[in-house]
Amino acid sequence: MFTIGSTYTRNDIYEILSLPEDERGGDWLNGYHRHGEDYYIFCNVGVPGRTGHDYDNHWEGEKLIWYGKTKSHFGQQTIKNLISGSYRVFVFYRSEDRASFSFAGVGHPIPHSAIERPARIDWAFGSEEIEETPIYTDEYVPGAKYTEGQRTEVLVNRYERDRHARDECIRHHGTACAVCAIDFGEKYGELGKGFIHVHHMVPLSEIGEEYVVDPIKDLIPVCPNCHAMLHRRNPPLTIDDLRKLA
């Protein structure tokens, strides 16, 4: 129904859902809305909304940190529904107030605290254990750079990825593997649409605390098999090197 990484206006969503005119607008203009057995979340990330509310919505790696309305809490039925797992929750986000929304995917809720107001829910999209989870783009400004790095101590050092940087890689280069050219959408249809790994040309583990990445020059889409083969050598093979072996 929706393609991860594609952008949509609310009117686009109305058309896709074939909503009659008298069901458009209204509660759809709020931050979250129930439609049948599904919920739709529309959120700004890093910028205030049109109502002037400025919630601390932001990305932590592949996880969206999201806040409900000002007085929301986990005792409210809507918030209970959102975290129940009984409803699909379609999550749309944008980083510019009047831009279209990017579709992040169907979110898996991680409630933050039962006493927090507004209610905070962390939305995961796929496994948090797989750092190459496919991600896509918000609008990208040509010439813009994105800071990556933000080292975090876990059991071993890992690097949090800037979602917008990796998103723009997919938006520019597409979802076909740069080595073997497989496109999972073409091969598996709707199931595989949009799936791809993103390879950093220079391994983040070899870079300092932060660096500035150009999503088009520094990142490249590759399939899981080719991604694994790139890292069979240390330092990793280049894309051209692996193409010669394929």
Classify the oligomer: single chain
The CATH class of the largest domain: Mainly Beta
The beta-strand count equals 14
End-to-end Cα distance, whole Å, is 35 Å
Element order, helices and strands?
EHEEEEHEEEEEEHHEEHEHH
Helix count? 7
Q: How many strands, what sense, and barrel or not for the largest sheet?
A: 5 strands, mixed
- Lateral strand order in the biggest sheet: 1-7-6-3-2
Helix content, binned percent = 10-25%
Question: What would you report as the Rg, rounded to the nearest angstrom?
Answer: 19 Å
Overall spatial form? globular
Taking pLDDT < 50 over at least 5 consecutive residues as the criterion, the unreliable ranges are 127-146, 150-160
Q: Kindly report the CATH topology of the largest domain.
A: PUA domain-like
Known CATH architecture of the largest domain: Roll
Task: Report the portion of residues in β strands.
Answer: 25-35%
**Mean residue pLDDT:** 78
Number of folding domains? Answer: 2
Class of secondary structure makeup: alpha+beta
